[in-house]
Amino acid sequence: MKHILFITALILTLYNCKAQSPIIPIDKWSDEQSNAYYKDIDNELDLFEGTWLYMNGNTSLKIILEKRLMQFNGDYYTDLIVGEYQYIKNGIEKINTLNQLSQNLGENHNIEGNFIHNTCVFLPIDDCINGEIRLMLFINDVLTDKGMGIILHKRNINGQQALKANLWYDGGMITSHPNDAEPTEPTMGWQTENMVFIKQ
User: Fold this and answer.
1) How do the domains of the chain map onto residue ranges?
2) Contact present, 63 and 135 (Cβ < 8 Å)
3) What b-and-e string marks burial along 150-168, b requiring 16 or more CB atoms within 10 Å of the CB?
4) Closest Cα partner for 38 from 49, 26, 50?
5) Per-residue pLDDT for the chain (200 aa), expressed as one digit of tens each?
6) Best CA proximity match to 113, nearest among 57, 173, 158
7) Can you tell me the distance from the alpha carbon of 35 to that of 22, in angstroms, rounded to the nearest whole number?
8) How, if at all, do strands 77-89 and 59-72 pair?
9) Phi, psi (5° rounding) for residue 156?
10) How far apart are CA 44 and CA 34, in angstroms?
């Protein structure tokens, strides 16, 4: 009986190793390889986990970000930041998807991504530093079904953990339905620079 259990465990171990090989650092991503595991080897995604709140008068955007390991998208495995959000404009709640965070939706969460950059070439904030870690995520506007991007920079502001961010939306990121006469702008403010999210 012990031999059967040992052989079964060995087969499962070998299968799992094959299913997730090769292991490639997530920040060295180039070409996609089937069944590869794009792993956050240096735990860079951990810096962005948490509940973060941006406020501007009575308009706010709360995002909750979590790191999920070995998410399989049908082609390969990857470590991923996923999240959900609440958007309030002029004191009125427009979008709230926070209750979906407990679901295991992988790349189908309303916030997701793992694109790590370390240059200030694309949409830098006012104090961007070449070499620092920047994280790009995608946000789905659930009311218009449009995609937006957000680039996050970790900061410490007045002793508080914070994220500085650029939120943008352009024609290349619109996922319009075929019947749309014209692209609809997203519900949230877009092409917003230097947003400051404070960790809650």
Assistant:
1) 2-199
2) no
3) bbbbbbeeeeeebbbbbbb
4) 26
5) 544 444 444 444 444 444 557 999 998 777 788 899 999 999 999 999 999 999 999 999 999 999 999 999 899 999 999 999 999 999 999 999 999 999 999 899 999 999 998 989 888 888 999 999 999 999 999 998 888 899 999 999 999 999 999 888 755 444 444 555 555 666 876 667 789 999 99
6) 173
7) 8
8) antiparallel
9) -120, 115
10) 23
Which structure tokens are listed for 17?
């190793």
Query: Does the pTM exceed 0.85?
Result: no
Tokens 């508080």 belong to residue: 160
Can you tell me which residue has the tokens 């965070």? Answer: 101
Residue 121 tokens read as 């070439």
Report helix, strand or coil for 171: helix
User: How many helical (H) and strand (E) elements, i.e. helices and strands, does the chain have?
Assistant: 1, 11
